[in-house]
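Input:
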Amino acid sequence: MNQIAMSSPDLTEREARAVYDTVRSTHLAIGPQIVEFERSSAEYVNGKHAVGVNSGTSGLHLAVIAAGVTDNDLVITTPFSFVASANAVLYERGIPVFVDVDGTTGNIDPGQVAAAAEALTREPGSSRGWLPRSHRADGAVVGSLKAILPVHTFGQPSEMDPLCAVSAQHDVAIVEDACESIGAEYKGRRVGALGDVGIFAYYPNKQMTTGEGGMLVTNRDDWRDLFRSLRNQGRDVFDSWLNHSRLGFNYRLDEMSAALGVVQLSRLDELLEKRARVAAWYSTRLQSMQELVEPPTIAPSTTRMSWFVYVARLARGIDRDGLMRSLSEMGIPSRPYFTPIHLQPFYRQRFGFQEGDFPIAEDLGRRSLALPFSSVMTEDQVDHVCRQLLNLLKQQHASI
Ligand SMILES: *Cc1c(COP(=O)(O)O)cnc(C)c1O
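Output:
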């Protein structure tokens, strides 16, 4: 059996040719490839505008700026995510207001979001319980609520309808972190263009890749112009090359990456179908031991899953980390997706978060096991992983 990879890009001669042709064209930055990549990206997610950037993280940063976040402003977001989604708030010196997640999907709990937004906009003085410990003291300076930042975790859409209702009610922006979910559909609608701005990421472990890269999608004309300016050193469209209207960054996406992206996006539906097939192979095999390991749960509102990773949920009492070590010894990689963000050392230190603050996210984090997953995995490989995993689980279970 070939060495099984945790993840793998799915690339053909077409991608290689597109990058080669771009290199040969000598047009390596700000050229025709990004224009085409942005046009096809907006079209794919049914958004009005798309703006390419050099990573999902840079896209999130620009979205947080557009939402108006500045010193001590509040952003309601999920602790059960990759650290970049909350870090973007910190780049603008905002305060992340974490709320707990739904125990079946792992996505942000819209009821908690509504309650937090209600409290934080109406009675700032008496709502300190929603804030990180570092900001609960009476004298602590706290700005205003600027955005809700849901993450479509593992390729499954968050409950956008109630989140959009909260955003409309309190006039705060919705920033969709769609970095794990390109092509996913919520009640028949593609994610990324359901709020004020959505962000996609194209690192090689995602559903499609540009090497490094990301994309912002928005229906707002003013935000498109702002994103174009911010990614390009703060130049406005009408500025000359050495005129800078605002503080900007170099977050531009290069032409080789964009060329790769154009081809990958044209193949995306094929890639997602292959991934869905691999996920189904896993779920069929794991179903036989539901009491020890649960396949991912798909919510009724998820009309199309965009499989990013395959994360099984272990029964309480299973030694997840021991299981991962045993799998690793057999040449099978796995990952503990996720250690909740509020328990990352830096967040504990800076904001005073503690174990127990978000019990559902923590429970999911302790029991999750991401298995090797990609569109190029074979059924034999899935079979091998599942057989070894089920054997180990039986042994562990027998000895508990
Ligand atoms: C991958 C990812 C990002 C960051 O994307 P990069 O391109 O690696 O910067 C942000 N948020 C989530 C939830 C992700 O999974």
